[in-house]
Amino acid sequence: MCAHREHTFTVDIHTHILPEHIPDFKRKFGYGGFIYLEHHAPCRARMLQDGKFFREIEDNCWDPEKRLKECKQHYVDVQVLSTVPVMFSYWAKPKHTLYISQFLNDHIAQVVQRYPMRFIGLGTVPMQDTDLAIKELERCKSIGLAGVEIGTHVNDLNLDAPQLFPFFEACQQLDMAVFIHPWDMMGKERMPKYWLPWLVGMPAESALAICSLIFGGVFERLPDLRVAIAHGGGSFAATFGRIAHGFDVRPDLCAIDNPYHPSRYLGRFWVDSLVHDINMLDFIIRMFGAERVALGTDYPFPLGELEPGELIHQYTDDPQLKNLLLHGSALQWLKRDLAFFVQNL
């Protein structure tokens, strides 16, 4: 991090957290597929799935004190906490996913309650059962979480599926923010090498989610739904010309559930700034508007922005624009008041 740069109040909407200890859900529920942690060295653990290595993590993934220390080093004032998407567990029996969701949500709520001016929490819910998802959404609100993180799809369902609409309707009614994060990437069976599911599949997942919400009429029917999409919206911005042209030339295929042009919805949702390229950052700001682009880093994982906010600081010296990108857009999405967080600075 450039130590000389002037500090601007900074909110990171895209960070992940896990409890330090995760129960043996395989033993509890009687079948496999669940993540557990193997603490094999000080301050380190392996994420394992049925004994198969998934990811190595460090204590900054579970220790709020370590996170706060690194936030200070990186000039981040507030982190928005959400679970690691592999924990969604939409494939499991709904009652078991509900149990896991409650376990994870209670942990995030406890961290937020302990450090209310440093963290904002997003819950996870059993999206494969809409009724249970809404009940847990309501509970998330009651324990102080600002919204929920969901996947770009729910098993075989895209986000325009009619059975999912009541959940989005409940999010609007309860005034809960929605953060959409890619998971279980499409085509992963055809991408066994080169980390391609993360490099190619993830951006495509986010574009699929946005197009589903647009073409499916979810944004049209729920104008007050507050949605943010990870990784700058994935490949959506880069392929929007093709998406719009497809709507123009084949409305018989694209407009079957929503008659309005996709351009109507640019600026209706937020994206994070995690695009790794200053030209792409400029592109999404021009496409969506600076008030719809918020700092996101994917902390604490290496595919994220390793120096939080550095790309934004490189992009502009304009104080007003920098304020929007580093905290203003985030707080608008979350419906949080800046004064609450700065009062003790």
Automatic annotation (TrEMBL):
It comes from the Bacteria. The chain crosses the membrane at residues 195-219. The keyword Transferase does not apply. Residues 11-334 form the Amidohydrolase-related domain. Pfam families: Amidohydro_2. InterPro entries: ACMSD, Amidohydro-rel, Metal_Hydrolase. Its EC number is 4.1.1.45. Pathway: Secondary metabolite metabolism; quinolate metabolism. GO terms for cellular component: cytosol. It is an enzyme of class 4 (lyase). GO terms for biological process: secondary metabolic process. Keywords: Decarboxylase, Lyase, Membrane, Metal-binding, Transmembrane, Transmembrane helix, Zinc. One of its GO terms (molecular function) is metal ion binding. Belongs to the metallo-dependent hydrolases superfamily. ACMSD family. Monomer. This is 2-amino-3-carboxymuconate-6-semialdehyde decarboxylase. It comes from Schleiferia thermophila.
